[in-house]
Write a structure and sequence with these properties.
Layout: E1 23-25, E2 47-49, E3 71-73, E4 95-97, E5 118-120, E6 142-144, E7 166-168, E8 188-190, H1 199-212, E9 220-222, E10 243-245, E11 266-268, E12 277-278, E13 287-289, E14 298-299, E15 310-312, H2 317-321, H3 333-341, E16 346-352, E17 362-364, E18 370-373, E19 383-394, E20 401-407, E21 416-418, E22 428-435, E23 445-454, E24 456-467, H4 471-484
Parallel strand pairs: 1-2, 2-3, 3-4, 4-5, 5-6, 6-7, 8-9, 9-10, 10-11, 11-13, 12-14, 13-15, 15-16
Antiparallel strand pairs: 16-22, 17-24, 18-23, 19-22, 19-24, 20-21, 20-23
Length: 505
């Protein structure tokens, strides 16, 4: 029977004449206030959908007679504050959805739903605890607790459930992470937004996990938005970790042990306002985002990042002052050339700054677009690729997006950057490199221009064709020799003493 969307229906009909009904859809019946007591005769009912019945307040005692029910949806029933204890009689129930409901606790009898495989409690903002004995639900495969903002712990018998359950606890009030085994769904651990987690309990859980579950491999860890004041040294025990999101936390330093994460390729540190130092990290790192780390001043041994092909230090103004964005450290043209020679198709970075490097051969210092023709003899194996740079600023606090269109280079290429925190920024530099493509022809016109910008203004633009025997390399070598001899090398017309993207001297 399908009565969903019946906005004037205030009470279910008498079911006495339809005892063989197997499916009943009453979703979005916004005036429905109660369920007719005759619903207990529906001994063959397997599906009952009551989602968004926003005026439904209670169930009759006969509700527990639905012994064949397998799927029950009560999501967004905004006036349903409690469930009857007779729920425990529905032994065949496999899926129970209470998402976005106002229940404060579940009936103790729910532990008798031994066939239950999925329990959805996300966004139950009044839910404070789960009933004792929930560990007896041996067949439970997924437990959704996301956005249960008052839930601060799991029952002590949760361990009895077994490690096959997939547990979702993002943005809860949980303080102690003693259940890491049950977060290992799809080799990904998500604790984002759990603002009350204690780092010491998380470290203990990692040690227990590494000792008791040697055959499991956590490859992705989400701890963003947890407001952690420190990261435990034990994180190095997650040897298979390749993706780590630590954004929006309150730590000042990261543990030196992170260099032992030999598989780590992606690291997010955006919005860590107090982070002062970036430790030496594994040379396997290829993608690093540290936007809006406004206190970041020190990067330990950045030359180890030989594989990095994408990184962003948007709005990290202290790095400019400490001169850590020079060509000798992160923005080294040698590094860019090596990446272009390798399998990487492109390389890009975002840093604070207000200038195009002076050694860029094509520049527009007063506008947002630039065009030039490829030299008649450039399209050969000596050409590594094209470097493009533009200076931009965020003009509003809303979502920001930039798209740079390049016409004439193999194909049209688009590069998008989104500042999800919606903060206004000072001037920043977006630098990227595209690998040479054999389909290019001599004399072709290259045109670079921004398209469909959102809350972003492009102030300057530049481009440079990078060759294997580019004069910039000999200038860099000469400057390095001068620095080693503690002598000042005069700048030439083709290069500067400091090729900083963040700041050009």
């Amino acid at each position: 029977m399908d009565l969903h969307g019946s906005s004037r229906l205030t009470e279910c009909p008498d079911f006495t004449t339809t005892p063989h009904l197997e499916r009943l859809y009453l979703s979005f019946c916004e005036s429905l206030r109660g369920i007719h007591p005759s619903i207990g005769v529906l001994r063959k009912l397997t599906i009952l959908d009551l989602r968004s019945c926003i005026k439904l307040t209670s169930f009759p005692k006969s509700f527990g007679h639905l012994t064949s029910l397998k799927w029950l949806v009560l999501s967004s029933c905004l006036k349903l504050t409690s469930l009857p204890d007779c729920f425990g009689n529905m032994k065949c129930l496999e899926e129970l959805d209470l998402t976005d409901s106002v229940v404060a606790e579940l009936p103790a009898s729910i532990v008798h739903l031994t066939a239950l495989t999925s329990l959805r409690l996300s966004a139950c903002k009044n839910l404070r605890r789960l009933p004792k004995g929930i560990g007896a639900l041996k067949d439970l495969k997924t437990l959704f607790l996301t956005d249960c903002v008052k839930l601060d712990k799991l029952p002590e018998d949760f361990d009895d459930m077994g490690s096959s359950v997939q547990l979702y606890v993002q943005r809860t009030a949980i303080r102690k992470v003693t259940f890491l085994d049950y977060l290992n769904y799809g080799e990904s651990v998500e604790l984002r937004g759990c603002r009350h987690i204690k780092p010491d309990s998380f470290g203990s859980s990692i040690r227990r996990y590494s000792f008791c579950s040697p055959g499991k491999n956590i490859t992705a860890l989400f701890l963003n938005g947890c407001h952690l004041r420190w990261i435990p040294q034990d994180i190095c025990l997650l040897h298979s970790l390749w993706y780590l999101n630590l954004g929006l936390n309150d730590f000042e330093y990261l543990p030196a042990s992170m260099v032992q994460l030999s598989e780590l390729s992606t690291l997010f540190l955006y919005g860590c306002d107090r982070l002062q130092q970036l430790p030496e990290l594994s040379s396997s790192l290829s993608y690093l985002v540290a936007d809006n780390c406004k206190s970041l001043r020190t990067i330990c041994n950045p030359l180890v990042y030989t594989a990095i092909n994408r990184f962003s230090f948007l709005n990290c103004s202290q790095l400019v002052e400490s001169n850590l964005l020079s060509e000798r450290l992160i923005l080294n043209p040698f590094r860019v050339s090596n990446l272009l020679i390798s399998s990487f198709k492109y390389w890009k970075c975002i840093t604070p700054g207000c200038e195009i490097p002076k050694w860029f051969s094509h520049q527009n210092r007063m506008g947002s677009s630039i065009s030039f023709q490829l030299p008649l003899d450039c399209c050969n194996d000596n050409l590594l690729g094209l470097l493009v740079c533009f200076v931009f600023e965020a003009t509003d606090r809303g979502p920001q997006q930039s798209r740079m269109e390049i016409k004439g280079w193999s194909q049209e290429c688009y590069f998008i950057h989104g500042n999800i925190r919606g903060q206004r920024t000072g001037d920043n530099v977006f630098l990227f490199a595209l690998k040479y493509d054999a389909s290019l022809t001599n004399g072709r016109e290259i045109k670079i221009q921004p398209k469909n910008l959102v809350n972003i203004k492009v102030k300057k633009c530049g481009a440079h064709l990078l060759y294997k025997d580019d004069p910039i390399f000999s200038c860099l070598k000469s400057n390095d020799r001068g620095r080693n001899n503690n002598k000042k090398i005069p700048s030439s017309s083709n290069c500067d003493e400091d090729f900083s993207i963040g700041q050009v001297i």
